[in-house]
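Researcher: Re-running this chain for the archive, since the previous output was lost when a drive failed. Same request as before.
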Amino acid sequence: MLVTAGPGQPDPDFPDTRPLPLPDPPDALHPTTLDGWVCATYDGAVRDELLEVFASATTVTTWDHEGTTWRLKARPVLPGETPCT
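Model: Regenerated structure tokens:
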């Protein structure tokens, strides 16, 4: 699973900020071509745990890590894709 993380602001009408569920802090992830966004891939048990967390999230869910708010996007790694490059 490919997860990208980038700057986010909570929606004041639908507050839903949760602790960042990633096993690594954002500054340890790979930078992307999008300003401020980073990415990582996860498989096995970590992927399964993240899928459980993401199942209860919505499009307005934001994630907190040490006082910084993040947005997360998750998707499968496509066949032949070189993720996070």
